[in-house]
Amino acid sequence: MKFPPGILDEIRARLPVSEVVGKRVRLAKAGREWKGLSPFNAERSPSFFVNDQKGFFHDFSSGKHGDIFAFVMETEGVAFPEAVEKLAGLAGVTLPKASREAEEQERKARSLHEVMALAAAFFESQLESKAGLKARAYCEGRGLGGEIRKRFGLGYAAPDKHALRDHLAGKGVAVEAMIETGLLVHGDDVPVPFDRFRDRLMFPICDVRGRVIAFGGRALAADVPAKYLNSPETTLFHKGAVLYNHHNARKPAHDKGTVIAVEGYVDVIAMAMAGFPHAVAPLGTALTPEQLTLLWRMADEPILCFDGDKAGRRAAFRAIDVALPLLEPGKSVRFALLPEGQDPDDLARSGGGQAIARVLDGASPMVEILWTREVEAGPLDTPERKAMLEKRLRALLAGIRDEDLRKHYRAEMEARLRQLSPRSGGYGQQSGPQQGGYGQGGRGQGFAAGRGGARGRDPRRQGGFSGEPVRASESLSRSALFSKTPTVSPREALILAALVAHPDLLASQAEALLELDLAHPDTNRLRQALVDLDADRAAGGADVSRETLELRGIGPLLARVEAAVRPGDRWCLDSGADPVEVRESLRQATTLHHKARTLHKELGMAEMAFAQDESEASLAWIRDLRLQLSAIDGMEAEIERGGRDDDLTSRP
Fold first, then answer.
1. Which cofactor does this sequence's record say it needs (predicted)?
2. What's the whole-number mean pLDDT along residues 457-477?
3. Rounded Cα distance, 415 and 535, in Å
């Protein structure tokens, strides 16, 4: 819920910081301020200060700082809206009522929550009934006894295609509500809607308030295409913005000062059984920025715990790219990799909670995993390969938005790079900021140089910028952030149109497709149609095909998207094209898309930051982002030139 700034200001005006803090901390007057012992760290000498005139608290022992809302969030482990509501009541401020439209949406959401609660209760009863015998046997085999099943609300969806539908209908629930919550599979080619989840062990997914908003289902039959099936995106459920077990983990995470993110539902439950109730999990996808933000609300340094296999290592490396641009002083992540071939459930069975604790205690900081990933990317036995490592690190660290943190990361990487060539005192000792060497003259000419960020220099005099005001770049102006009528991105069009032409690839790409940040309404609609079709197919519905899309009224939209594909990429739309080549083109397009969308968003923030504060850091940030976007445009042009062929039939 959004609150008008005037309301927040009124609450601040009515509640001195010392009054709010004084309910938890014994304060003593110290000149114009108040002081006391830190509520965040055990200490003997006061290092916690409150200034009512400036309206903030500052804790020197932990570095925490903020206003009354931040204090309540930090000390009580609540989200911002809850902090506002609590302090409004304390201040005697009446929060404005929502608009009629917002009230209607809230009423509708409450109704849908009731539907999900009824579905969860039905699944739970089925698990404990005669029909759930096979599912209970599976649970017992995984060590999930009756108490833990009840604690996590586990259930069972019977094989019958209409069991849940008929049960909810008997409770007066409309079919439309079942469809809107994702409980039924429907469509123009589905004459009678049927249950999405069948013969699956069910895991209810809850919001932070503990209300069921979705389900995850684990197939019990070995021949089912999708081992795990999640609810589709709905009014209540946005997969990338939810953490499994968030509602249960929030208080223990606040009490313990940390939170652990594992990979799956059963991993979370295994961690809880082993004595780690502050464990959560993403929902079958790579960690998203929204989920990382949720983790940081629970702890300053969440531990990302990954399985001890190649997939777990890849997941850890992907998490670096998500976290790096979002890091702030005091906000980071640590990485705990389990022993080879083990997940939390395996480790808990073999070594108990102590074995898990040892792994968590040995968690590595972000900088260590970043260095490991880049060094392991290839051999470093020639100056050229070392220079490439330096270049990659420079580009990665440029994504850290906080100037001080970026400086410390650069210093750390400079030191590590110098150790690669101890006899020469470093490598790449070229003169001039554009080469950015290390060793002699490396300080000030390493990562900081060539970016217009060296202290005492005006980057506008280094050829990067003129003295004119910064305007949105041409590429940013074309993006959905600035355009009122955006055009379909050729890259987005290629990804979606290729999956329509090659539906066999969709099953393996569905999760990645959901993670794409798409800018245009048409590509978003087509993406949702494809994901829904794939889910329907996995649940026994119609196959994914152009004909099915046209039956569902998606034909005109598909034609518009296909028309946006570049001529050099149109060979991918040929159903007879080599699927290996198509898969590689999709991989390239997806990688470039993720990178470009991230850079466009950062460029928008950088340009807005410069408009507010014309600092050297802002200029350096803009310059670096523009260079990276130019590199992507050049790379994409090379790919297109390599793929363009007037005679499409000559392509394999």
1. Zn(2+)
2. 41
3. 50
